[in-house]
Amino acid sequence: MTTGRLHALRHWAFGTRLLATALIALPFATPAYAITSSTAAALTPQDNDSALDVHAVRRELDSFQAAQISLRKAMAIAEALHSGSITADISFDGASEPAVYRVKTMQQDRIWRHAIDAATGEVVGGEAAAPLKSLGAEDRDNLVVLRALRHRLADAVRVAEHTTSGKAISGGLMRERGKLNFVIVVLAGSDLKEVILEPPGARRR
């Protein structure tokens, strides 16, 4: 379950791509291994088919660096709004006024959408809810697996930030070749880095 904003940020996360798999026996505190496929690079387009204008991305990242509320804090705020809810997707939106984190949480059979002010932590513009059955089949299946996992998106964010020594700007779920992974985009220095984490148990479902 990935938003358009997460897809766009992933396009720019070419500085370093880290592939990490957590050992089932470990508490997901650190990845079992991490492979760096390329060296860190400055934020410049790789090709003409850019997902976002480089200047817009730069403004977005400047806004993110000025945010007082971290992505993990925004997740905690959104989850506290509805008892038992867990975050399925979160992205920083610096183009809105004020800058916000857009968070999707799941509570039983409902999906909640919230905007959390990145400066104050307040909920902006109310909230919206939709039944889980309104999603596509793949998104529904991904969320069913997420609900059954012992680890949460917040755990993956913590690992990604520790691995890259950066700050997470977005996170969500992605299924590739039948495997459900957490995908975290992190700002480390001036570089966007993508961290993919396979939660223990996801492969078997």
Automatic annotation (TrEMBL):
Keywords of the record, alphabetical order, are: Signal
Q: Could you tell me which species this protein originates from?
A: Bradyrhizobium elkanii
Q: Does the keyword Signal apply?
A: yes
Where does the signal peptide begin and end? 1-34
Q: Cross-referenced Gene3D superfamilies, in alphabetical order? A: 3.10.450.40
The PepSY domain covers 69-125
What this protein is called in its record is: PepSY domain-containing protein
Q: Which Pfam families match?
A: PepSY
